[in-house]
Design brief:
Blueprint lengths: L17 H11 L11 H30 L7 H10 L3 H29 L4 H6 L2 E4 L8 H22 L5 H24 L6 H6 L1 E4 L1
Helix pairs in contact: 2-4, 4-6, 6-7
Length: 211
């Protein structure tokens, strides 16, 4: 008897040969089939680890930027901040906030690129034994894919909107603030209702978090 797929001779009245059966089985398997989709708990724990790391780096950036902008000689940083709190200088405050946003996000881009280049994931996910793969290919992300997922789709759009609020009119600034809030809300609530536990940035980048 001949195979219905390739025409090769087969035995035991089977409909397709073993080689065609193996190809058919592989084609039915999704790239993430060999992985297990991670839990909300592990994603949240990884996010907590990352947040603690970025909290430290952000406080360090705040300290350095304030030291650069508040030139008070031998006065302590606290003493230099008092006049700024008593009579706020809007121009200086805007300058400091923008410097902070830009410096922290530049650091985030460098950190993300290096982590994905060498490890294919971030420190938080390494600690929890989970990783990120491309849902179509099943492969770990390279540095560019990592930056697109973890910075552009997750934080970059919100950053642009946040910076724009400093220069927009009051009504536009309010609209942008609402937009940032909604995007952030969808970002972190989506995994709770999605069957594959995917966040908004996973859908935008075509990725899935697995263990």
């Amino acid at each position: 008897m001949q195979c219905l797929q390739c025409g090769k001779e087969i035995l035991n009245n089977a409909k397709i040969c073993l080689s065609c059966a193996e190809i058919a089985i592989k084609s039915c398997q999704s790239p993430e089939a060999k992985y297990k989709i991670t839990t909300i708990g592990k994603r949240a724990s990884a996010l907590t680890v990352e947040s603690l790391l970025w909290m430290f780096l952000t406080f360090l950036a705040i300290y350095l930027i304030l030291k650069i902008n508040l030139k008070g000689g031998h006065s302590s940083l606290t003493e230099q901040l008092v006049p700024l709190v008593i009579s706020p200088d809007k121009t200086l405050i805007t300058k400091i906030v923008l410097q902070l946003l830009i410096s922290v996000n530049l650091l985030a881009i460098i950190y993300t690129g290096l982590m994905f280049h060498y490890f294919g994931t971030t420190i938080g996910k390494i600690c929890l034994g989970i990783t990120i793969i491309n849902q179509k290919t099943g492969q770990k992300l390279n540095w560019l894919e990592g930056i697109l997922r973890d910075w552009v789709y997750k934080s970059g759009l919100n950053l642009i909107a946040t910076i724009a609020t400093f220069y927009a009119s009051a009504s536009i600034a309010s609209l942008l603030s609402v937009m940032v809030f909604i995007i952030t809300l969808v970002q972190y609530l989506l995994p709770f209702i999605d069957k594959e536990k995917k966040a908004l940035h996973d859908y935008l980048s075509g990725t899935i978090v697995v263990e």
